[in-house]
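Question thread 4412

I'm putting together a teaching handout and wanted feedback from people who do this every day. The idea is simple: show students a protein as raw sequence, then show them the structure tokens that encode its fold, then repeat with a second protein so they can compare. Below is the first pair exactly as I plan to print it.
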Amino acid sequence: MTTKEKPNETSRIIQLFLDNCKTRDYHPEKDNEFDFRYKIRIWGENGYLTSIVTFDAVKEYVFVQVILILNFLKSTLSELCKLTNEINNKYVSSKLVINTEENYVALEAIKRYAEIGAIKYLWKDIDLAVDILDFYIPAFHLVGYGTMGADKALETVERLSFADEMEEAMEELPN
């Protein structure tokens, strides 16, 4: 009688992830270099984002990285860092990182397998990371092209978002 091996937790979570990608009509691309890494391309309201999900079998966590390729003037780097720090101060579960060599901004979040439970909690982290970065894309462009400083760009993005919410609320009111 042979003993059945317990399924590997990483392969179980990856399979849940891939199954859930199908239901969402996402087409993850498996990384050629790393067996446990997948890329998903997602369109937000403000731009095109790439989400990279890496499963770490040794440390038993999922690393979510949502990337925005961003052209920016090198002279705006200090303001971009200030903008990144301001946004990071608002969110505890994830952090923004600027890569000045390859000109991208990434939002990163790490979740332990034990914290995931149902796959819906992993997707909450992925969706939240996409939403946060997507929301701030206009601010990064305003700062990156030297149009505004970090404070003014944040204020503008938040004001425009509030205006959009008000417009939607007005449309829902009865005539």
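The second pair follows. I'd like the answer to focus on this one:
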Amino acid sequence: MASRVRYDNRELTATSLLLTPDPTYRHKRLLRLWGSLILLIAVAALGVRQFEDRIAPESYLSRMRQENGELRDALNKARFDLEVELATRGELERQVGGLNDELKQVREELAFLKSAGAPAPRR
């Protein structure tokens, strides 16, 4: 059989108790408020960042596509200009070759005439 022990609790009721708010309660409340505010701002900033990351690639892609089209047009123009330049250069080289052949023939005729003793043609 367990023995029962009696405790004297008369002293607990003899004094009056005064309940006052904890002085650190106000500080804790302010800390929670500021913490919540900082957390809310951080979440909002992350939300804005996420929104920009989803929207920004679309605008970036459209801008890059437009720039790519402009560069492609410029490249096509440059290719056309190069082809015209190559064709012009080829034609000029052909003409220079023909003129060099003609000059060579004239010099040969001049050398022949000089060796035959003929007077030099007048201009």
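Top answer:
Good format. For the second protein you could add a caption like this: Helices lie at 10-14, 23-116. Residues 39-115 form one domain.
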